[in-house]
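Quick one, probably user error.
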């Protein structure tokens, strides 16, 4: 039997249980009181200190490199994934091999595509027979377009791919095909055929087209795949190759090196400018010239002429990003106007928008200088639009608390303004609400820091730091500005008004449109429609009077009126809750169907030339060139990668050094047989699913060095094979073969054996077999998964070591690097949600001290996220790069309005509110206008993204707008009605009440360190706190 607790013991234990909370509360109140006192005394000092800190940060930023990171091939790869490591091993091995002499421009390093479209998408033009896109005038137009490139003098002398040391006419061109230029004709001698691009007669075109139809498999590369069945082509193309190494260089050019820079500046940029000028493509204002169409050909049957080169695409991307970012100016102006209207002060609006923008360079200081993160990408620009909405929302929260202090703390009898008490009330009321939203939003962004993809991780980190900086500024700069403005412009006017009269600050010119009280009353009448008349009348009364301090009598009266939830009462609220709950379940089901993209990511608008060429790349033609398909390497001799001083935020440096295995004993008969078996198996291995063709490798694309070495050995050594040779002799002859020959392959042109037969310091250390996978590099992730599985099956079946004389073997392809990155996008979004939701729940529970309220809030946030992702599915989007980043932004923005309302609902206890109806009305009346103003600001800042040229920005704008609208709808029409019909009242769900119940039920005074804790509602009766500390009262 439990020991009876004496009143003395109960009193002592009660004091012990409250001591910790009292210390924390007292310290917090003293700090706020001290800060507000200094703030009132010296507001200008706060502003000057902020400006000084800003200038110091800017000075340090100037001292370090804050330029955007140059995009590299490693940005969207997982640094520690095994395929990224294997790719780095191959790259380092290629750098360390003994160099062979590569003939000048003997490698087809870079492509320049021309596309000709007689039936362009979204254009009022039709492809008509008998010749379609290959009519006489169209062929002449194609010749004139291609001549802009190969007609340049530097094309022949510096950049043309050389076949046996000669720049020849392009082989993969419809121009040379229809002008019937003999194969391998030197370009300098081609003027006889195509010097002035003469107009061909119909007979010659008909003859060439008939020959093409008879040998379609040899020519289907040039024409759309339906041309043969149709009888004439509607689309055609040509490919011209830029060769490397350039004169004076010894290695093949790579994007980003000095050879590539030379090619871009001296050839690509000049050719691009000439083409734009030829077709009068100028663009309008900030719009890209590539939104215009290059049209040429016969009148009434004109064709679209398009071109593509990697340099052109990258240049367009950079220019378009810079152009689209100017839209941020429009967003800044809109937010400035809206803050000025809401606060009825241009001064407060101006300082507020400067304070919001100030958070970005301060965040950059911590990001770049303190955290030493060097990666700065295009996506960081998006933070501007996000922080504009979040910052304005925080300003509204504080300013509305300041306006409420006017009624809570009126002037004294003599009309003197109690400025310190007012600012302290506003600070206490706004601090917790702003902290809750800022902390949960920052955690949601910080959750992406664990993402393996550097661009997404750095975006989340930078956005989170911006939120934290904004939180610090809004609680220092905003109160200081409000005090200065009040003293200089408001207080002098109020001295002329009797003290008992109060004024509400508003913008009189817009009062008819932005009458907050009018809209709040209308909303509450809708919410309470159908309730009993007694409740309706009390609601109307509460709207017109301030809540009075609670007394034992009024508390007993209110507790006696508490009712359990009922479907008959409050019908409108129940309809809203049940209807949106059902709708949310539907949207969550749709969101679960989101999958990684099955098509290449589209970064430009549909009428941009880059988007249109991308569609022409994707399966339009009968066949594609070998470079369209990802390469696959089967590698022997590389053991592991050693990295030193590798920084994942500088992904293109210090990638590591390869450690080779023991030298392979390839001279042994068994070893040669194993490699030959791998070659034969690779050609014939069946791909059951996921591949474009029946086999895993593309036909005629496998380059097997040992097969060609054996053929060369038989020809040069009296018919003797490579079997039975000693190790030294075998390696000597293999090195000679490596120096004197080049790989032979119809579908996989490789300029040298240098990287396939790896001699390092004169010793054979590795070798590999290369082929082209029968796979679309930008295809669906599920297909890549299937082909990846089949490739591993091939390695285990045909490349396994029969003895210990050959090192371990593994396979590598760039396709697997991107496949892993696509999978990481999905995992990153799921992990971000798995972190953000529990943290939000903990913060809500801690802030409200009510588990029921926190549970309702987290359900609402989940509904918002599910609704936005469900809309993404309805829009036809996939879970790609843009959507994964947007998912992080959605989580960060979805919590704000729900937390604001939930916090004020809980604070209603401090006003003596017990019933769910009274607390809900108080929350809407207090925070409703702030929530709406914040939603309008964020939506207004994001709406300008809809006018961007990059689909990344337009989709982000749509998703941010969807998030804000969903947050507003679910906060006001789901969360608020849910609180109105089922919200916690009295002590329901209160953590202290739960602790009190557990203590009374399970513990005795001899075994519990905490005894009974008096219910918070009784404390309200015993000692109601002062008005200025309403937000800091003991939670119920």
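Nope, works fine. Designed sequence:
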């Amino acid at each position: 039997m439990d020991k009876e607790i004496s009143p003395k013991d109960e009193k002592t234990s009660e004091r012990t249980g409250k001591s910790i909370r009292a210390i924390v509360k007292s310290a917090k109140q003293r700090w706020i009181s001290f800060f507000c006192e200094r703030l009132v005394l010296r507001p200008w000092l706060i502003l000057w200190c902020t400006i000084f800190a800003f200038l110091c940060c800017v000075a340090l930023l100037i001292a370090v490199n804050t330029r955007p990171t140059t995009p590299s091939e490693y940005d969207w790869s997982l640094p520690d994934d095994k395929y990224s490591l294997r790719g780095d091993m191959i790259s380092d091995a290629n750098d360390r091999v003994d160099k062979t002499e590569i003939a000048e421009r003997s490698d087809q390093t870079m492509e320049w595509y021309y596309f000709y479209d007689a039936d362009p998408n979204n254009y009022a033009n039709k492809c008509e027979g008998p010749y379609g896109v290959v009519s006489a005038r169209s062929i002449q137009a194609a010749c004139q377009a291609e001549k802009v490139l190969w007609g340049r003098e530097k094309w022949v002398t510096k950049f043309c791919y050389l076949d046996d040391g000669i720049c020849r006419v392009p082989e993969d061109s419809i121009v040379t095909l229809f002008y019937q230029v003999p194969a391998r004709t030197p370009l300098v001698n081609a003027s006889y055929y195509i010097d002035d691009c003469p107009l061909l007669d119909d007979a010659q075109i008909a003859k060439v087209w008939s020959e093409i139809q008879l040998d379609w498999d040899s020519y289907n590369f040039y024409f759309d795949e339906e041309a043969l069945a149709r009888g004439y082509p509607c689309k055609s193309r040509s490919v011209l190759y830029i060769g490397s190494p350039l004169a004076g260089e010894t290695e093949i050019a790579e994007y980003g090196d000095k050879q590539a820079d030379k090619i871009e500046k001296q050839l690509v940029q000049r050719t691009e400018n000439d083409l734009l000028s030829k077709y009068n493509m100028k663009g309008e204002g900030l719009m890209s010239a590539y939104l215009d169409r290059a049209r040429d050909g016969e009148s009434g049957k004109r064709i679209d002429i398009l071109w593509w080169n990697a340099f052109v695409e990258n240049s367009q991307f950079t220019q378009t990003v810079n152009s689209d970012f100017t839209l941020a100016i429009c967003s800044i102006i809109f937010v400035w106007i809206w803050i000025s209207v809401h606060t009825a002060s241009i001064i407060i609006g101006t300082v507020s928008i400067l304070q919001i923008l100030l958070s970005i360079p301060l965040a950059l200081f911590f990001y770049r200088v303190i955290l030493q993160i060097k990666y700065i990408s295009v996506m960081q620009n998006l933070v501007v639009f996000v922080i504009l909405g979040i910052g304005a929302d925080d300003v509204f929260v504080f300013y509305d608390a300041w306006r409420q202090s006017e009624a809570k703390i009126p002037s004294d009898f003599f009309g003197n303004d109690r400025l310190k008490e007012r600012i302290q009330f506003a600070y206490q009321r706004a601090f917790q609400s702003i902290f809750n939203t800022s902390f949960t939003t920052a955690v949601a962004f910080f959750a992406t820091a664990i993402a393996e993809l550097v661009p997404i991780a750095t975006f989340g980190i930078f956005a989170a730091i911006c939120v934290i900086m904004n939180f610090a500024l809004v609680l220092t700069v905003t109160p200081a500005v409000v005090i200065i403005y009040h003293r200089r412009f408001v207080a002098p006017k109020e001295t002329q008004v009797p003290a008992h009269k109060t004024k509400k600050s508003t913008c009189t010119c817009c009062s008819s449109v932005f009458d907050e009280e009018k809209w709040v009353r209308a909303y509450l009448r809708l919410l309470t429609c159908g309730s009993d008349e007694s409740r309706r009348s009390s609601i109307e009364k509460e709207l017109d009077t301030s809540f009075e301090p609670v007394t034992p009598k009024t508390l007993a009266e209110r507790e006696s009126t508490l009712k359990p939830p009922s479907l008959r009462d409050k019908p409108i609220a129940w309809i809203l809750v049940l209807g949106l709950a059902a709708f949310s379940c539907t949207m969550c089901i749709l969101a679960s169907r989101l999958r990684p993209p099955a098509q290449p990511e589209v970064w430009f608008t549909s009428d941009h030339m880059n988007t249109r060429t991308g569609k022409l790349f994707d399966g339009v033609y009968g066949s594609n060139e070998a470079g369209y398909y990802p390469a696959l390497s089967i590698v022997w001799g590389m053991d592991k990668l050693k990295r030193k001083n590798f920084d994942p935020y500088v992904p293109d440096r210090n990638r590591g050094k390869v450690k080779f295995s023991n030298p392979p004993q390839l001279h042994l008969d068994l070893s040669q047989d194993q490699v030959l078996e791998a070659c034969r198996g690779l050609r014939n291995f069946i791909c059951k699913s996921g591949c474009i063709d029946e086999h895993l490798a593309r036909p005629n694309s496998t380059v097997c060095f040992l097969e060609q070495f054996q053929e060369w050995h038989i020809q040069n050594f009296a018919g003797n094979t490579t079997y039975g040779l000693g190790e030294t002799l075998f390696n000597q002859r293999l090195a000679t073969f490596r120096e004197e020959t080049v790989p032979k392959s119809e579908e996989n042109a490789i300029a040298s054996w240098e990287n396939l037969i790896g001699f390092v310091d004169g010793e054979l250390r590795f070798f590999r077999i290369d082929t082209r996978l029968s796979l679309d590099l930008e295809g669906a992730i599920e297909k890549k998964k299937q082909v990846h599985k089949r490739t591993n099956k091939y390695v285990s079946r045909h490349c396994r070591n029969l003895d210990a004389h050959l090192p371990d073997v593994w396979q590598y392809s760039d396709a697997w690097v991107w496949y892993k990155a696509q999978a990481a996008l999905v995992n990153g979004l799921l992990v971000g949600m798995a972190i953000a939701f529990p943290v939000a729940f903990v913060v809500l529970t801690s802030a409200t001290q009510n588990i029921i309220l926190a549970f309702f809030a987290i359900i609402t946030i989940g509904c918002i996220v599910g609704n936005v992702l469900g809309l993404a599915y309805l829009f036809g989007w996939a879970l790609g790069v843009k959507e994964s980043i947007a998912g992080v932004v959605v989580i960060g923005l979805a919590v704000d309005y729900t937390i604001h309302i939930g916090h004020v609902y809980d604070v209603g206890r401090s006003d003596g509110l017990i019933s769910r109806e009274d607390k809900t009305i108080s929350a809407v009346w207090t925070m409703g206008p702030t929530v709406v103003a914040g939603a309008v600001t964020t939506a207004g800042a994001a709406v300008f993204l809809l006018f961007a040229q990059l689909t990344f920005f337009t989709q982000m704008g749509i998703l941010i707008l969807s998030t804000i609208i969903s947050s507003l709808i679910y906060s006001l029409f789901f969360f608020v009605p849910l609180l109105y019909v089922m919200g916690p009242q009295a002590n329901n769900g209160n953590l202290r009440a739960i602790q009190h119940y557990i203590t009374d039920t399970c513990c005795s005074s001899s075994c519990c360190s905490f005894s009974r804790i008096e219910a918070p509602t009784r404390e309200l009766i015993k000692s109601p706190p002062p008005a200025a500390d309403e937000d800091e009262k003991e939670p119920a």
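Confidence is low (pLDDT under 50) at residues 1-17, 495-513, 533-556, 1004-1036.
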